[in-house]
Batch of 4 targets.
Target 1
Amino acid sequence: MSRLVDFWQHIPEHINPAFLEIGSFQLRYYGLMYLVAFSVVYLLVVHRIRNEKFEYSKETIQDYIVWAVAALLIGARLGYVLFYNLEYYAVHPLAIVFPFDISDGFRFVGISGLSYHGGLVGIILVSIIFLRWHEINFWRFADLFCPAIPLGYTFGRIGNFLNGELYGRVTDVWWGMYFPLDPLHALRHPSQLYEAFFEGIFLFTILWIIRKKEYLKGMLFPLYLIGYGTVRFCIEFFRQPDPQVGLVTGVLSMGQMLCLVMIVVGIAVMGVKKRQGGTV
């Protein structure tokens, strides 16, 4: 049993995050997991269109996916800059978009640092513009996508795990793990796996089960906000806060503060929708 526990705890140290390396350029599993995530969401949405009588064409969905992916990446990057490291990027603005390090030669380092909440804001804004342009009802379209999104998010968190990043706080539980990027080399919660399960599979299962409920038409978007915000808020107690931010209130992390906003917005939207009769 002790050998099995030891093997489990050291798994991250044996994972090479790079799927392909050419010189200083690396293609990481993290990026591949994002491609898998987008593909999973697209396939689930197309499945629903075929089997649940949604009136959208595959071409419309494909066009939207392109805009949504771009909005997600831009919003997530800008969100990280604003919410998590504004002081640094105010001094080094080129680092926001420039994937090379020129301080010591010239080498590809990629662009690191994405914020889920920034990506969410980006997608919402682009969705409003896209759907108005195509004269599509926002709430019905959200009902189509929201049950599928968490399963895609599962793969994003698996990507974080394979990348050895966003690990959890120090712990003494037997299922803790050692992560190679941890400067303390301490046993830590594998919080990426917690998030992959609860923010992904758990939330997906709930939304997928209730997606056809007639009385919830037009409500899946606020339910997603409340559900994700609640689950993420709880898991953040096990996740190591970003070192440049720490605990912004002495107790809560920046992610938890943003999740509280998310929950409040979800409850407010649900209240407005109920007063309107919950119509799409």
Target 2
Amino acid sequence: MTRVLQLFAALSRAPKGMTLSQIARALDVPKSTLVSMLRALVADGFLVSQGPLYQLGSSAFRLAAQIMSAFSLPSLMRNHVGLLAEMTGETVGLGVADWETGRVIYIEAEQSPRMVLYAMRAGISAPLYASAAGRVILAYSPSKLVEPYLNRRSFPALTSKTQTDPTALRQQLVEIRERGYCLSSGELLADTAAMAAPVFGAYGELLGALMIGAPIERMRANENIFLARLIETGQRASGEWHGG
């Protein structure tokens, strides 16, 4: 089954088709092993064979349409949010942008069971510029959305550490893209810290930002392990994880 899915993914990147040899190299599988699988997929309409080339067939596109019709970002991410919260013991949320208000809205949240915690629930929001999830969204969103936001808004300080200079914010966004995540300490609330990483869709588009929030001291004490878990979960949610 995994091999079939890998084949579909390879052919989706080669709309003009691939030969048996090209498929064997892409999947790192002997040609002799592929022949019967390809023959069966052609018979069922998942592939079309035109001369030496194999292409995705109508059954594959029908399957893709059925899968996309069931797509729901909150439902898709609920398990990832819950697992990350379980692994870290901290509050975890998934945020998306509301460009009209300039805020990140958390559409999924799992609150820490600890007595001292980062309080969050689904439906709350925070300014894009002052939150870890918000800055990840700014870093990976199209410039046609980001530039009007940076050019037209004022950025009031929420704490003594809030970054309010648009030029400095732009530099932070560059650094976030280089690192692949954002760390924020005491910028939204004086006694809390957060880290966030992007979640991408099938075409590389940003779907949202996955974040972990905790009291500052607990975040500092566990920063490396939390960050590793966050990035792994973000990659799994994006379908990019290839680890063990």
Target 3
Amino acid sequence: MTMTTPRCLKIFLSGWIVSISVAIGGAWAAEPLYAPLPPAPPIALSTSALEAATIFRAYAHKAADISPKFSSGVSVEDSLAVGSAYEPEQLTRGAIAYAALVALQSPTFVATFRAYAPYPEQRQKLADAILHNPRYAGEFPGASSAAGLIVATLAAEVGRMQTTGAAVKQSAYSVQHSAWSKTRVINPMQRLALAKSRSAALMTPEPADIESLKAIAASAGDPRAAEALDAHGQPVDGPYAPLATRALAVAALALLGEGGDDNAAAVQTLLSEPENGACLRMSKLNLYQCLAVAVPWYEDIFCLGEHALGETAQCIVKDIATPAQIQSAVTPTSSATTPVASSVPATGAR
């Protein structure tokens, strides 16, 4: 015997099922399975870090633009004023900060640390770990790519300065056919005192240049930012030299949203490498000794090329990477068209 459901019961059951479905659907709509991610803090570098990066970039460009074609003692003095005008620790901080900006142009490095940025607890723990051990940032995915950009880009930047230094030093010999180059330096003690005072004075960045680098930091990973910095290079494996190590750490903090002005003191500790400026201070002492015994103008030219430019470039590149890492990072195109700093000390006699 076949049982049939009464029509009224069918209507009741259908209505009940519809009501339950609507209720369940409304509940799912009101409370989704997954809560949306909290907003990630913006990518940012502290003002002091941006100022330091600006100073390094400005000095490197001005030093590289010194002309080796001298025509008078005045032109030698003007070039010495440019070449000697940096304070060692400030320039080292600037090199680290500028390298951090370069590291921000690695898409993989950016994606790795931005993935942690929306989660306050994870973000803070990771930032604390990096501050405790700056090398930690170099162990994450994308670090080799970011390090390659640092090594190749800064080696090329410093390489231009080193090329200028070699050309200036060579001109110390070629200029000797001009009578003025063999005359005695005017007031040599005052000239030495000026070189020392310039070396102790902190450089002041241009506000427009700071804003330019601030925009580049905020656009991390954008190809246009990489183009503005002329950032290029192949991935490089660690361990990394002090400058690259600390630059990766600063860049990681910026990507986590922990590198801005609210955390400026912590960023400053990463910019202050333990042996901050030691090599540069020694190059300054060598410059002072050279100037102290120089008599004719062509010897001042030698001091400028050998110590103010050449040794300065060598000190910076030594803290960037090993010669093998530089060779690995430099792309065929950049190595063929852009001077790249060498870690082999220049030699020569006055």
Target 4
Amino acid sequence: MCPPKDDLLAAMQDSELSLQEGDCLAISSKVVSVWEGQCVKVDPSNPAQRDELAKAQAAQWLPREEVPERHALWTRTQGNLISGAGIDASNAHEHLIVWPQDPHASAERVRAWCSEHYNVKQLAVIVTDSHSIPLRRGAVGFALGWAGFDPLVDHRGATDLFGRAFISEHTNLADSMAATAVLAMGETNESTPIAVLRDVPYLGGQLSKTPSHTPPYTVTPEEDIFAPFWRGVAWRRGSGGS
């Protein structure tokens, strides 16, 4: 697919993709953004263009001066802690690729089309990207949007091997699947924007549940267990929401 816009569903139809009941279809947010026209032409005369665009997309942003070597403009965008509001210039053909405006709606649109085209009813779809996590080198995949399943597996009330009850334990199914998918899809020039996960533990039990796009899946900075780290830096207010 080529920016600034291309037909994702037509590309999928022309591919060798096959789906079965209970599968999870993982799709890169980049090709979803290209499909939806979320691309901005690079302005060579404005070296600050990417940061300006990130600040406009973000609910909060942290100045580069606060980051070692000025490597990142940290933002809180669509409920995610992400560098540069997720805006990407790689494999973008002289464009900046912005996240989909509503990744959950995008995932549902893909899921509905795939359900009809491949004749599958029990199907999970995740829109993926990758990010850095504190105190670790390298990128790991996460789910930006999802459809067709509940992203959390609730273990509250279960007991461990010694009978101790779990009070707050959940499995983050959406991000776990995304990390696996992104590892298979790659980060550079692999040209593999889609992966199919099959026989995923826990997924079958979540496919019949209503997807959650709000708390308890996401948390606000105030209630986050990492709240001390949020409070300790000079966040600026951006133009975006969430």
